[in-house]
Amino acid sequence: MPKDSEIVEELQKIRQLLEPKPSPPPPPPPKGLWAEFIDFIGKGGILGLAIGFIMGTYIGKLVSALVSDIIMPIPGAFLPAGDWKEAVISLAIGNGMNFKVGDFVAVIIDFLIVAFVIFLIAKYARKLGVK
Fold it and tell me: Is 14 within the bounds of a domain?
């Protein structure tokens, strides 16, 4: 049979194991705006975001140039008036109102083509595993 001192000693060990440990202190907050900025830049995703933004801007310009310089002149060649982007609807109200319908339609078509190209790029990138 164990002695009383051994039992007390064992109970003290159990008590130490069951007592909650104090949580570690929280890390100190970054010091100043510059330190927060460096911490923000160091997260890693910012560089990829910047590259994606710049590439997206120039891909958009490239596709817009393709649409306006190569694709849009094709319908203009078949119209008797020529450049259909210059089409205007005029209303004789007050001093007259001019609606640049041709330019509006050209911008819509340009947007749809750019959106479709971006969609294809994103779809291809997902197949490659790029997020």
Answer: no
Residue ranges making up the domain that contains 82:
51-131
Q: Classify 8 as helix, strand or coil.
A: helix
Residue range 75-99: mean pLDDT, rounded: 75
Distance from C-alpha of 101 to C-alpha of 83, rounded to nearest angstrom: 12
What's the pLDDT tens digit per position in 25-60?
Answer: 888 776 788 887 777 777 766 777 777 788 888 887
Share of the chain above pLDDT 70, in %: 89
> How far from each other are the two terminal CA atoms of the chain, in whole angstroms?
67
Q: Would 62 be classed as within a structural domain?
A: yes
Residue 42 lies in a domain: no
Examine the pLDDT at 1 and tell me if it is beyond 60: no
Residue 97, classed as helix, strand or coil, is strand
Count of domains forming the chain: 1
User: Residue 67 carries which DSSP code?
Assistant: I
* Residue 34 within a domain: no
Residue 5 burial (C-beta neighbours within 10 Å; 0-12, 13-18, 19+): exposed
**Structure token digits, residue 9:** 């000693």
Overall size of the chain counted in residues: 131
